[in-house]
């Protein structure tokens, strides 16, 4: 079973080939020009997808050593994400499947983030609890098996990645802010400012990061922080980054471990761009060990948006004989379940 997967939900144009569950290629073109606007510009993102889709798919096929006529199905993301961006990959994928006379499979981007944990070995065993922490979502999910999910909780306001990006902007750091905060925090003192941890109710699996973001804003106002020159104090910026990051990581880890205990899973996993955060990875490894849990984290290139995770979902759906109708439309607000 050979599947081509296409991802265009936001600002990465990516394509991958999976044969019999094994990843044969994964090519991603990141649209770095959004940096100068301080965020993704939707209209420019969809135009860039139009420019990049053919070369990216060509390269994914050529790197895999598989010809178009050897594909058994084409999978493409159909939501959630930016409508103009989704439409490029979705229309391309449907047309390619139609032209080749093979099935088309529409893929939910958030489901793909979770199942990115199945790309490499060792893989988590079912059931496991997954925490997806990305630019647009923070979701704690009980994964009973592929396609059988229970959403335990999600964010009531900002996503974890969004909080990183907004705090980085307040500090005058470059976009996307997550990797910048991560880098600077490594040199800072996480106990420098005691920012609030928003655990919500004791047994809640929901998240909220807007209060933390506001606390950082008030703190910066109090110290009359000048973001145009980072107060000329790199140690201060590193300390604020470390303190903010610790507040996010504490909450994420506490809820993930509590969910694993409540649902008695042996395995836990994380996915999405924030899963690249070094402090989250470091602390989770330690906490998983202390709690006798096995931790799974996808390789960095499968944490951020990628075609491999789309191809993986397409592959599993095709194994179950579940192709999509060619009339499937883009759903910018598609839910996980
Ligand atoms: N090392 C890091 N530490 C913290 N955050 C990070 C790190 N690397 C990336 N991020 C954050 O990850 C986010 C991007 O992740 P991803 O590409 O998975 O999101 P998205 O695809 O835009 O959102 P979604 O999947 O919810 O639609 C950004 O907010 C970025 O700042
Ligand atoms: Mg994503």
Explain how this protein is built:
- With 337 residues, the chain is α/β, with parallel strands linked by helices.
- The protein folds into two domains: 2-114 and 302-319, 2-Layer Sandwich (Nucleotidyltransferase, domain 5), CATH 3.30.420.40; 124-297, 2-Layer Sandwich (Nucleotidyltransferase, domain 5), CATH 3.30.420.
- It is 42% helix and 19% strand.
- It contains ten helices and ten strands.
- It has helices at 42-64, 83-100, 109-115, 160-170, 177-185, 210-222, 234-262, 278-290, 300-303, 307-319; strands at 2-7, 12-19, 22-30, 73-79, 104-108, 128-133, 138-145, 148-154, 267-271, 294-296.
- It has a five-stranded mixed sheet, with helices on both faces. The chain has a five-stranded mixed sheet with strand order 8-7-6-9-10, with helices on both faces.
- β1 (2-7) and β2 (12-19) form a beta hairpin.
- The longest helix has 29 residues, at 234-262.
- The mean pLDDT is 97.
- The site of adenosine-5'-triphosphate has 24 residues, from α3, α4 and α5.
- Adenosine-5'-triphosphate binds next to α3, α4 and α5.
């Amino acid at each position: 079973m050979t599947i081509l997967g296409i991802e265009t939900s936001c600002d990465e144009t990516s394509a991958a080939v999976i044969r019999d569950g094994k990843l044969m290629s994964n090519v991603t073109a990141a649209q770095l020009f959004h940096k100068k606007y301080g965020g993704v510009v939707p209209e420019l993102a969809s135009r860039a997808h139009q420019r990049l889709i053919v070369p990216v798919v060509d390269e994914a096929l050529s790197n895999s050593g598989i010809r178009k006529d050897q594909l058994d199905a084409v999978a493409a993301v159909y939501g959630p994400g930016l409508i103009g961006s989704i439409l490029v990959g979705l229309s391309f994928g449907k047309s390619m499947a139609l032209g080749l006379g093979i099935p088309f499979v529409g893929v939910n981007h958030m489901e793909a983030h979770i199942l990115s944990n199945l790309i490499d070995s060792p893989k988590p065993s079912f059931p496991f609890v997954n925490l997806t922490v990305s630019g647009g979502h923070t979701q704690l999910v009980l994964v009973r098996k592929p396609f059988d999910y229970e959403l335990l909780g999600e964010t009531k306001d900002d996503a974890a990645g969004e909080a990183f990006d907004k705090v980085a902007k307040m500090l005058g750091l470059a976009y996307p802010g997550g990797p910048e905060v991560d880098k600077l925090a490594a040199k800072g003192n996480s106990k420098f400012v005691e920012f609030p941890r928003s655990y919500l109710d004791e047994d809640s699996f929901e998240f909220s990061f807007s209060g933390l973001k506001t606390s950082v804003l008030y703190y910066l106002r109090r110290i009359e922080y000048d973001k145009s020159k980072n107060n000329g104090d790199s140690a201060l910026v590193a300390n604020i980054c470390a303190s903010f990051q610790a507040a996010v990581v504490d909450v994420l880890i506490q809820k993930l471990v509590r969910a694993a205990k409540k649902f008695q899973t042996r395995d836990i996993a994380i996915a999405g761009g924030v899963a690249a955060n070094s402090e989250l990875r470091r602390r989770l490894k330690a906490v998983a060990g202390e709690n006798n849990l096995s931790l799974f984290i996808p390789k960095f290139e499968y944490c951020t948006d990628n075609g491999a995770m789309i191809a993986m979902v397409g592959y599993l759906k095709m194994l179950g004989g579940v192709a999509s109708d060619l009339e499937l439309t883009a759903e910018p607000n598609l839910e996980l379940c």
